[in-house]
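[Discussion] Sanity-checking designs against the backbone

I'm trying to build intuition for which residues belong where. Below is a structure token string of 117 positions. I'd appreciate it if someone posts a full sequence so I can compare it with mine line by line.
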């Protein structure tokens, strides 16, 4: 399994892969990461989060449907602190592309590594 690693990534697009890693070193603005249409249906969505943040950070995953609408798949908030492989997991069935959106509270410092599978 391959993922894309990029320091301070803003927009990340991968080929059809069941795994994605996003490294965020700059929490001064939201970060978006797109996973395109899959060839087979997914049956779950898992986020594994590691890193340290000084203020709360919102995590959102949206399904980008063929009708151009966004449908919420998951919403979570990371409170200030240090995380090592913090798991957020749930059912998700579909092939449509999904977008991970990481939105820090203004003034947040630190870094995060988010693995999505």
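Best answer:
Here's mine. Compare freely.
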């Amino acid at each position: 399994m391959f993922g894309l690693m990029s320091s301070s990534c803003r927009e990340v697009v991968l080929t059809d892969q069941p795994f994605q890693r996003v490294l965020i070193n700059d929490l001064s603005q939201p970060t978006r990461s797109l996973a395109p249409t899959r060839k087979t249906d997914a049956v779950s969505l898992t986020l594994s989060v590691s890193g340290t943040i000084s203020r709360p950070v919102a995590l959102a995953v949206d399904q980008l449907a063929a009708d151009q609408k966004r449908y919420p798949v998951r919403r979570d908030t990371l409170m200030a602190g240090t995380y090592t492989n913090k798991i957020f997991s749930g059912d998700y069935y579909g092939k449509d592309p999904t977008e991970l959106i990481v939105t820090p509270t203004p003034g947040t410092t630190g870094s995060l590594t988010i693995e999505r599978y």
